[in-house]
Amino acid sequence: MSLDPSLLQSLADRVGTPFWVYDAGVLRSRIRQVKALTSPPKVQARYAMKACSAARVLREMLAEDIWIDSVSGNEVLRALRAGYPAGYDPAKICFTADVFRDEALKVVLQNNVLPNIGSPNMIQQLSEAGYRGPISVRLNPGFGHGHVNACDTGGPSSKHGVWFEEAKAIAEAAEAAGQEIVMIHAHIGSGPKFEELHDNLSRLASDFAKIVPVFPALRGVNLGGGIPHDYRDPNADFPLNLLRNLFAEAQEDLSRVAGREIQLEIEPGRFYVAPAGTLVSRVHDVKATQSNAKGEGATFAMIDAGFVDLLRPAMYGSWHRIEVVGKADRPTEPIVVAGPLCESGDVFTRDEAELLQPRELPRPVPGDLMTLHDGGAYGYAMASNYNSIGRAPQVWLEEDGSVSLMSRRETIEDVIDLETDEPLAL
Ligand SMILES: Cc1ncc(COP(=O)(O)O)c(C=O)c1O
């Protein structure tokens, strides 16, 4: 998506740089695609809200009856505040937990939220907290593929879920604790190739079909998220109709084995929101280092967005499309794009081995706007106020061209608000 340069300039004048802008039309088009994928009977889409948990986005999902996968007590509370109903029947909010942290157990108990447990001892922890409701179990199927190795969500090196072969033991433990397992779940990650994701999902569905009889109260099977987004070519089309067929067939197979209707669920995150969010920054300087015995010199565009705004390149070496707004006609040259933080890793153009990877870009000049695209998923959601820099504002761009502020810029008061000198009586 390329946004209108004059609109970006007006927004920059109004809210300052850097800022995030979300294109409602792009988000809605992705929502429609997921709805089409999940159109067969008893196939339900959730949204893995950790990708972008803004209320504005949650309300769009709610309006289309896309349910929620949350991963913390506070995410559950955000979904409730956005208007999602609490309760188990149906469980429109599911809470996938690796560890019950903070007030998570209290939130589950007070709001009747379906916990999707990620480790065996959680049955005990729920029991001790007085929980007697239904549960879901996240299983580690032993295979899968993240978009990078660090995001591997299935296999011996993954911390997520209960090992698949322990399914029977976990069913017995849940029964002993008076907890009914109503859903089994796995997330096998967004593999780098669509075909691989398709094959993994179909293998997962058939592995799940084999263990369905272990869970007499089972009502749902969740195949996780992972529909990929092509960051290099946002217009790339994946054969999503193949997934639609896969989901329809899996739902029928699972129901046949169970002898009753089983709901099949998926819970993508990035696919909905990645292309909708753009980080807009301003170029403050263009400077160069010179080649010497240690290595080659480079030209650096110094922009005011950093990994406090978009962490993915620094964290995984992720690639995001970069544009010098409205300057596509200038000749290009290799440019390293770097941010304001006091960290040498605050560079957006790097590879997975964390080495500089200059990008062919029109040579920017100070004052130009520079956009980092496809950051709607795991962009603002991973933002921090490291270096005491406040989080950037988020702007919503409606399909009719109107704009509104989704969240304001974090101020120094916000940054220091949690500090106290309160004595602790022990
Ligand atoms: C349990 C679970 N569900 C869904 C997702 C969403 O994945 P994606 O954003 O790649 O679709 C994740 C991401 O890691 C996850 O851990």
Average of per-residue pLDDT values: 95
Number of helices: 12
Q: What is the name of the CATH topology of the largest domain?
A: TIM Barrel
Report the CATH C-level class of the largest domain: Alpha Beta
**Structural class of the helix and strand makeup?**
alpha/beta
CATH superfamily of the largest domain: Alanine racemase
- Total domains: 2
Biggest sheet descriptor: 9 strands, mixed
Hetero compounds: pyridoxal-5'-phosphate
Query: What low-confidence regions span 5 or more consecutive residues with pLDDT below 50?
Result: none
What is the radius of gyration computed over CA atoms, rounded to a whole number of angstroms?
Answer: 23 Å
Overall shape: it is globular
Q: Strand portion, in percent? A: 15-25%
Helix percentage range: 25-40%
What is the name of the CATH architecture of the largest domain? Answer: Alpha-Beta Barrel
> Care to count the β-strands?
18
What is the H-and-E element order?
A: HEHEHEHEHEHEEHEHEHEHEEHEEEEEEH
Determine the N-to-C terminus distance. Answer: 56 Å
